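Work package 3, deliverable 3.1, input record:
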Amino acid sequence: MSVNDVLVAGAGPTGLAIAAALSETGLRVTGLSAAAPAKPWQNTYGVWLDELPAPELHATLGHRWSNVVVHAGQRTIALDREYGLFDNQRLQQYLLDRCERHGVVWRTGVAAAVEHRESHSLVHTRDGREFAARLVVDASGHSPSLLRRPAAPQVARQAAYGIVGEFSAPPVNLGQMVLMDYRTDHLTPEQQRESPTFLYAMDFGDGRFFVEETSLAHVPGVPLSTLEQRLRRRLEARGVAVRQVLHIERCLFPMNNPLPYLDQLVMGFGGAASMVHPPSGYMVGGALRRAADVAQAIAQALGAAGATPLSAARAGWQALWSPARRRRRQLYLFGLASLMRCDSLTIQSFFESFFSLPRPEWTGYLSDTLSTAELARTMLRLFVRVPGHVRRTLIAAAGAEHALLRRAAFGQA
Ligand SMILES: Cc1cc2nc3c(=O)[nH]c(=O)nc-3n(C[C@H](O)[C@H](O)[C@H](O)COP(=O)(O)OP(=O)(O)OC[C@H]3O[C@@H](n4cnc5c(N)ncnc54)[C@H](O)[C@@H]3O)c2cc1C
């Protein structure tokens, strides 16, 4: 049996991104995917344009907006940051082309188990085939097939129900992208006390719009039927009727999965490696950005004398989840836990203050590009700026989540 350098399991956006980056270092890469790697992705992927790590990625966007706003409380805040939606087919083709140029061979099959020898690992597929590689990278999504992570009974989920369609009147201003509309005047007082949800919406041009009712994070996930009802009610209150449904998006994914064990012999990437950014749920931009560094670290480790799956996986984990990034993650998890304690009024005041922070701070917070000290300063500044009722919620969160803060302060992951 031939032994390749790396086997990547999964061909979602993160599997393709890491396979492409690994192959570009000169490593011989096999991709193993449950579905054909060119099978269309169903999710709608949004990204901040300044997160794209290469100029040519701009050509993979289907839509982009410079008119981006947040509605919170009485205010409409213009964000001065460009936002885009990928054209999935273009992004997929772009990544597959890079893979093809550097010799990635794709196999279709479901990775079911892995066993390790001294110098390589063997992946067994559900239909009884075996693939050998010096390192296995699991990019099979949020419930990975090969990676191990600690059990977590209380995982918060982002949930959303969205419609791409045509409407009797524009649901948002023409040419506009609404990152969050937390206004609740269309809800009954009783509904306003339930877990807050917001509208994420955009004008696609040519008479089509995308409107999505989203719960940022909740344990367990807010039911999609509730989100659908809220979306319809929101539209109705604005006198907007759905004329034609072109696509329905049903979204549910974990926001705060624990990190996988970092001493295991399999490396992970994407949802499998808990890379979802806890305060926002975004991951694709970050995965595209981080793939090259992780791939370099793995290539270097595999190039060293006496390399083993363990040494290569360690190098990959270290590049992906350095101690500093793990500390920041604790702060972000604390931020998420605080948001989950907010009622509708509190969360609107929170975001009013958040998006009024200096631009480098809120953008860095959302893209995870701040240093640990900068992140801590940003959070402190926000704490000082928010109104009293929000501050009381944050203090209560700090009391309840002191373990997260301690881990951030003392550097335990
Ligand atoms: C509806 C929705 C909308 C989202 N919108 C955004 C957004 O706007 N921006 C953003 O950044 N993030 C978004 N996310 C979050 C996150 O980026 C996505 O969940 C993303 O698809 C995760 O990418 P992934 O490659 O890790 O996993 P997946 O996209 O789930 O891909 C997993 C791949 O692994 C394959 N696979 C699974 N099991 C096996 C196995 N055993 N063996 C081999 N192959 C296997 C699958 O066939 C698939 O190819 C969204 C998520 C959802 C659900």
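The longest helix spans residues 284-303.
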